[in-house]
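Thread amino acids onto this structure.
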């Protein structure tokens, strides 16, 4: 901070560290397309493909595992009695529910690859364009 004697005011000069902080704060409020360079955009596009596939696969796997667990509980415990089902009926329903849950959980891996393939095909032209520009 320097004292300006000519007009009895103050003028401020910021250090390099403060300048960097100002630039970071300013970048937060600029639109993403203005501040994003081509390499950052390329990384973001590539990451978006795998993130979407991971979310879908995790949801299928978790839901399938929970359904499988419920089927196992019906089959192996007295949960059927608590619900009001006879033991043999609870076992049959438990096996059926368990098979459905296991199949759903098993679909997580193929679903992951299907989503990856579909999303890569969707953004391939943009990725190719960006990589061509960056490799020149």
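Threaded sequence (136 positions):
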């Amino acid at each position: 901070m320097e004292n300006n004697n000519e007009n009895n005011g103050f003028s401020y000069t910021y250090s390099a560290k403060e300048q960097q902080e100002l630039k970071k704060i300013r970048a937060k409020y600029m639109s993403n397309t203005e501040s994003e360079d081509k390499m950052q955009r390329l990384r973001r596009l590539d990451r978006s493909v795998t993130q979407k596939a991971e979310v879908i696969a995790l949801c299928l796997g978790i839901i399938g595992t929970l359904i499988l667990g419920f089927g196992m509980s019906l089959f192996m415990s007295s949960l059927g009695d608590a619900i009001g089902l006879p033991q043999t009926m609870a076992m049959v329903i438990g096996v059926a529910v368990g098979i459905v849950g296991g199949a759903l959980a098993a679909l997580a891996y193929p679903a992951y690859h299907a989503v990856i393939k579909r999303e890569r095909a969707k953004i391939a032209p943009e990725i190719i364009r960006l990589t061509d520009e960056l490799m020149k």
